[in-house]
Amino acid sequence: MAGIILALLVGLVVGWWVTNDTGSTKKVSSQLILTALHDRGFLVTQTYMFNEPVTIEDDDQSFWESLLWGQVVKAHGVIEVNMGIDLANIGNDDIEVTSDKVIVTVDGAELFNSRLVGAISVENKQGILKRVFDNDDGYNQALAELTKQAEEAANDEDLIKRANERAVEEVSRLLGYVVTDREVEIVVNN
Questions:
Q1: Whole domain around residue 140: which residue ranges?
Q2: Nearest CA among 150, 96, 141, 99 for reference residue 122
Q3: What is the tally of structural domains in the chain?
Q4: Does residue 178 sit within a domain?
Q5: Residue 5 domain-assigned (yes or no)
Q6: 88 within domain boundaries
Q7: For a designed S-S bond to 123, which of 74, 75, 79, 83 qualifies (C-beta 3.0 to 4.6 A apart)?
């Protein structure tokens, strides 16, 4: 009986020793942080939806030119604009590792992409000859103008500020999985 208890105690001690190996602590380095962040690519931190109507017309035409060749396109649709930061742009110079803190400098938020969500409603009024010889439904012009307006609206200072704040939160969260023993500070370089 004493042998079984002794074997059990030896097994517990060996098991504890194997599972609590203190010699294999993970060393935090700038290369470890770079690897963790670069693997994420472009980090979308904020998505905005814009639904503003557009009117496209050529004001430089005379009455007769407008009557014959003119075109007025009115359209509206929902455009999604994604803003964020490119984690692949972070370099060794952007990471500072001290004994109690990790400071990572990231570029400010920028436009990642924009896309149409749903359909575009297009109303197209064309001049007489334009309708006969160059019947263009105006869809491509409307899409281009809607996208342009949405991207310009997303570059608003308050919207970029919000995207930067979310970038700080998300990068801090990502680094929290890698850096567990130090404070993490994210600096946005505008």
A1: 27-189
A2: 141
A3: 1
A4: yes
A5: no
A6: yes
A7: 74
Which amino acid is located at 78 in the chain?
A: V
Element (H, E) at 96: strand 95-97
Q: How far apart are CA 152 and CA 73, in angstroms?
A: 20
Paired tokens of 20: 């609590």
The residue assigned the tokens 């290369």 is 31
Residue 11 placed within a domain: no
Say if CB 83 and CB 165 are below 8 A apart: no
5-60 pLDDT, tens digit each: 766 666 666 676 666 655 444 577 778 888 878 877 899 999 999 998 887 776 66
Whole-angstrom distance, CA of residue 137 vs CA of residue 126? 9
Distance separating alpha carbons of residues 96 and 178, to the nearest angstrom? 15
Average pLDDT over residues 147-164: 95
Alpha-carbon gap, residue 54 to 48, rounded angstroms = 18
Helix (H), strand (E) at residue 63: helix 63-69
- CA nearest neighbour of 135 among 148, 149, 125: 125
